[in-house]
Amino acid sequence: MFFVVLNTFFCQAMAGYQDVAHRTVITHFIGTPANMVLAVIFIGLGFGLRGYLVAQVASGFLVLTLLGKSVWERTPPQARNAPGRTGLDKEIIAFSATAFGIAAVDFVLTQADKVVLGFYLDARQVGVYAVAIALVGFVPIALQSVNQIFAPMIAELHATGNHAILQHLYSTLTKWILILTLPLAFTMIIFSRPLIAIFGHDFAAGAAVLAIGALGQLFNCAVGSVGYLLLMSGNQLQLIKIQGCNAVLMVAVSLFLVPRFGIAGAAIASAVSVTCTNLWSLAAVVRTLKLFPYHSGYSKLLPCAFASAAVLFAFLHGAWRIHSPLIVAVAALVFAYVSFFGMLLGFGLEPEDREFVAIIWQHLGRSVRRDGAATH
Questions:
Q1: Which domain holds residue 63?
Q2: Angle, helix 163-190 to helix 351-375, in steps of 10 degrees
Q3: Cα-based distances in Å from 107 to 50, 94, 113, 244, 355
Q4: Separation of alpha carbons 12 and 170, rounded Å
């Protein structure tokens, strides 16, 4: 836990230095394989759970060392040689205290449903709910990836008064978050039963949780990085007020619905809270920052969404012939993305979207060539 806290800090520092790619290599392509290899070695040597824990600690220390070295190399020499004892600005202290409050409220938002379930229901149903919510956590993966890159840019653009650029980025990134999320969310909603069946028939009750949770996260992704827009523009007090009110709402709705509808009631409470939080945050962004993500180009996503949903429903009609839930889930995901992007590439891309795709493609090409040259 100690290493995780420090690694989180250094990960945020790397995001501030706008080098998320190098951070990802360390955490995902070095840290995760090291954890797996060490766990296999220690467990194979007969150390059991202790061996697994040692592997966790060792891989955490490895990641900490590499991240610390990377942050140090990117830190300006003037900052490295600063006096050991420096006072913190009151603004920094106030922002940190607010961020701590936001994290505490966010903890309530993410854990209150499980606590209420544990009070009213048995451990088995709580376990089914936890597995389904873990799958729901994949839906906002595009939003979370964008937030890591967009957050420091928000602070810089807002501080320098580049409102037009900030508006353009917010609109473009929100649209692409939605593009990347819709097929995944549709798959989880329409194929919730085959997806949850991967874990066995005992988890069948989690299908409703998966569908409801995916719908709630779709609303989360549809408004873009509203939370970070408030946080990184000096409006953190509004954000904590919004999250605090919705934490109370979630607890109240959970206490009302869980005794009546079980784990589905907890999923509804969570989805209602997520939706209200994001809509309220969007209203705050529009009011305080005069930013709005939507424009007429979003209408071209409608036929793409209809095509993707139609293909999934058609596949669902004949999927009963396939006995492997895993194969059904993977095939459904492939069909959802192929049909969506097929329609999108046909007539759904604006000129600026094509330019955005071209920039990403060129960046990926340079990364591949650079990695290939480094290998040789």
A1: 2-76
A2: 80
A3: 29, 20, 11, 11, 39
A4: 21
| 196 domain-assigned | yes
Q: Are residues 134 and 6 in the same domain?
A: no
Distance CA 235, CA 291 (A): 14
Given 249, 275, 294, the domain boundary residue is 294
Say if CB 281 and CB 226 are below 8 A apart: yes
What's the pLDDT tens digit per position in 24-36? Answer: 889 888 988 898 8
pLDDT range class, residue 375, cuts 50, 70, 90? very low
Number of domains the chain is built from: 2
Question: Do 237 and 107 lie in a common domain?
Answer: yes
Domain annotation covers residue 314: no
Query: Are 270 and 138 in the same domain?
Result: yes
Instruction: Quote the DSSP letter at residue 19.
Output: -
Of the candidates 180, 174, 137, which has an alpha carbon nearest to the alpha carbon of residue 308?
180
Q: Is 160 left (phi over 0), alpha (psi -120 to 50) or beta?
A: alpha
Question: 92, 32 in Cβ contact below 8 A?
Answer: no
Total count of residues recorded for the chain: 376
Q: Is residue 342 part of a domain?
A: no
pLDDT digits (tens, 9 = 90+) for 227-273: 999 988 888 889 889 988 998 999 999 999 999 999 999 999 999 99
CA–CA separation, 161 and 157 (whole Å): 6
188/264 same-domain check? yes
Residue 17 pLDDT: 84
Claim to verify: residue 131 and residue 204 sit in the same structural domain: yes
Same domain, residue pair 38 and 176: no
Q: Which residues of 57-87 are buried (b: 16+ CB within 10 A; e: fewer)?
A: ebbbebbbebbeebbeeeeeeeeeeeeeeee
Per the listing, tokens 């509804």 go with 268
